[in-house]
Design a protein that fits this description.
Distance between the termini: 60 Å
Number of strands: 0
Largest sheet: none
Region (Disordered): 1-27
InterPro entries: CCDC77
Keywords: Coiled coil
Radius of gyration: 50 Å
Shape: rod-shaped
Number of helices: 5
Helix content: over 70%
Protein name: Coiled-coil domain containing 77
Organism: Dissostichus mawsoni (Antarctic cod)
Length: 418
């Protein structure tokens, strides 16, 4: 059913009123209302519009509940992402602690060996347990032992300083991570409160709009009742006047139509005039109410169009944010899986390095045993040469370990700042 304004008859010329803007393509509200007259079709049209508004109100409430559920799921996903980030940080710390424990275990093993040798030297071996590998007395390698002890002490001091630097950097990173985590939690809580406030304000707005439409519906029913009373009064008056004209001067009105017909008595004329004046006032009042209702309907339609535009913009923004959060969650999941695989490979690599180092250590012991069994005039020089080669290999292995640690720290920094 189209708009009933096509049956309305204009009774005002299309002039430029003071309330109309020169640049606006639409005429002002008063000029648009001037072309409308109360009719059955207009009432039916507004009844259908109100029913349509009620359906849109229900749809908006359902969409609002749906968006609330989506935002709650989004907060849950963000919370799970933060938990996974915390687990990743704990795994990184555990990996670093494992490296530290491995190094400390190696140092403890070296210290235990030194203590065992020192105790054996103090106690003295049994005569049956003595096995000589050197023809020369053992005091000839004291300089070499002192050099090795000096190098060991320097390496230990260097490692201790590096461990202290690592501890300081770890504490600073932990403090920064804690601050970032608190800030993220505060911002997330603020976002959730804002979304809840938006939900409550939207729900209150929809409720107020629904109440306004209910009030408008009551006004329309009252207007319909007044129009029916007006039509019935006009019909009765018209029938009474036509009956009086047909009967002529001999017609005598009945008691029920006495108030609607003119009589020769002045008091009856006065009462009829008063009743007609009251009916005219009722008609004017009905016209004023109709114009007021039309103005309110046009205002509500304008507000509804604005609300729809705002709702479309809000839906677009929410959809964009949801897509960004989904992509970020997928990226974090992929990083987490890659980090798990890398950690497993690094653990396997550490085990392989330990196995290789133990094998190299055994090979060095065997070579030392062979060197001590060889007899020759340049025995000390050969031992010194072998020790230098062993020291070079040890430095090379230490360099590889330091490079591996640097790679691990680089990966931790990438994960921390990504």
């Amino acid at each position: 059913m189209g708009s009933p304004t096509k049956d309305a008859t204009p009774h005002r010329t299309n002039l430029l009123t003071p309330g109309r803007e020169p640049d606006s393509p639409l005429p002002p509200i008063h000029e648009r209302l001037a072309y409308l007259r109360p009719s059955r079709e207009l009432l039916e049209f507004y009844r259908q519009k109100i029913a349509q508004f009620d359906g849109e109100h229900e749809e908006l409430l359902q969409m609002l509940e749906k968006y609330k559920g989506i935002t709650e799921d989004q907060h849950k996903l963000q919370w799970e992402v933060r938990q996974r980030e915390g687990e990743i940080a704990e795994l990184q710390n555990a990996l670093s602690d494992m490296q530290v424990y491995l190094f400390q275990e190696r140092e403890q093993e070296l210290e235990d060996r030194k203590k065992i040798q020192h105790l054996l030297a103090l106690v003295g071996p049994d005569s049956g347990e003595i096995t000589y590998f050197h023809r020369e007395p053992p005091h000839k390698v004291e300089a070499l032992q002192a050099q090795m002890e000096e190098q060991t002490r320097l390496v230990r001091e260097q490692v201790e300083s590096l461990m202290e630097d690592r501890q300081i950097k770890t504490e600073e990173a932990q403090a920064q991570r804690q601050k970032d985590q608190e800030r993220i939690s505060a911002l997330t809580d603020k976002l959730q409160r804002t979304q809840n406030l938006l939900y409550e304000s939207t729900r209150d707005f929809l409720q107020l709009k629904f109440d306004a439409r209910a009030q408008e519906k009551s006004w329309m029913s009252e207007k319909d009742r007044l129009l029916r009373e007006l039509d019935s009064s006009h019909n009765r008056l018209r029938k009474t006047l036509s009956a009086g004209a047909e009967l002529g001067p001999k017609w005598q009105p009945s008691s029920s139509t006495a108030l609607l017909l003119p009589r020769p008595q002045p008091e009856l004329k006065q009462s009829l005039k008063e009743e007609l004046k009251a009916m005219q006032e009722d008609v004017k009042q009905a016209h004023r109410l109709a114009e007021m209702y039309r103005g309110q309907c046009i205002t509500l339609e304008t507000e509804l169009s604005q609300i729809r535009e705002e709702g479309d913009v809000g839906r677009e923004i929410f959809k964009e944010r949801s897509d960004k959060m989904a992509k970020r969650l997928q990226l974090m999941t992929q990083r987490y899986e890659a980090l798990e695989k890398r950690r497993a490979m690094e653990v396997e690599g550490f085990k392989t390095d330990l196995k290789h180092l133990r094998q190299k250590f055994k090979d060095v012991e065997k070579q030392l045993l062979k060197v001590t069994l060889n007899v020759g005039p340049n025995q000390d020089l050969a031992i010194l040469h072998e020790v230098r080669q062993t020291s070079g290999r040890t430095k090379k292995v230490q360099g590889e370990l330091m490079a591996l640690k640097a790679k691990i720290y680089g990966l931790e920094n990438e994960l921390r700042f990504s």
